[in-house]
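Section 5.1 Outputs to date
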Amino acid sequence: MDENNVKVIVPKSGKCSWGKCIFCGYGKEEHPVNVQVLKAWLDRQLLDFSGDTLKVYCSGSFLDDNQFPPEFRRYLVEKCKEKGIKHLEIESRPEFITDEKLKEFEGLDLMIGIGLEVADNDALKRIAKGFTVEDYIKAANLIHEHGFKVKTYLLVNLPIPNARELFHKSVEFAKKYSDKIVIMNLLPHGRTPMLDMWARGDWKPLSRKEFEGWVKDYLDDPKIEVEFETFKFVPSIPPEKRVYLKGVGKEFVDHPWYNIWQDWFARIYEPPAGRDIALFVPCSYTKPYSRSKTHKLIDRAIKSSGKEKRVHKLVISSPGVIPFEFNDHYPFNAYDWDEKLETPEIMKFYIEKNAERIENYLRNHKNHYKYFVAYFRLEAESLEALKRACDKLGIELKLGYDPETYKKLVEEGEKKPLFRAELLNQLSETLKNLD
């Protein structure tokens, strides 16, 4: 379909009347309901649009009078006819799909999207969907009786028994009632029970490869659309659940929020294109790291090497492996690890846990990188964890400086050898010499 012929709009009004689905954060959003504001907003959205297809997505139900008053719906229909828009897509829960409301759309080629998710009543209860399969069937039949179309949304990887089997059964079921089916990967929003399940290790999202394994049988079906990401997903810890993670101990290494991010970095995250030199570097007391003296000096060395556009900085610290572009995200900008409180037992755990995390990251992303370079103190536990992971995976790890130069500086009493020009210049040369 020609993209210039299609307009997607997301009006913000009211809130979802249900708002209890365990995976959805949109349903918890609330906005003022003002018909005049909505009309003016719609006018601006359609001002320069000359196509014939309008898609209206909303966090709830477009047919819910409390969320979108009938006056605004009628105005949108009039606007479509005035602009020559023939095809209209909206979304609604089944309980708002009535004979009276469907008559409002006569004269348009209407498609209504229903988030069925799974065609099983017990599973629908488990995910707190708030309606039954029978409610869906009734709504789908009514839509078809009016000559309109049904789009059914199904979710992959729900936290229910026999999830994969029920998914395939749901696809076959939905084919009977749908003109279009959209299969979506389940990615948890921040303010949902799904995020807590992920944190506890009771459930986790699928990687792209895993998702493709679930949906491979439907890729050639013209009625079915498959979406791995419906929004640019990164883990998001809600503000009310954020705490400053200050301390030293196992709980400040093996923390649920750290573990969520480490799982995402390893299995779902994709490193930036073109950055084929993995440069592993230490954290800093200053947060975010980008404001620290440590990283400003390292960045100068990278820039002087001429490989600035190829280097991907990866911090190793108590939260695990942290791609540098996320250094200002929570929790990486809100923790403090006091080295003076370290014990042999804690550091043993730190090395083992981070060796595991680094191994998981590199196992999935090693083919993205051509070179692997480390810039840590020789005695750093992070370097030891990195070496263990690289050795296990058969990865050649280069040290960014000459160890003898480092030892000499330490013998001379230097407390922060990584800050010294001798080592920073060697890092620059190491990077410069990579083809």
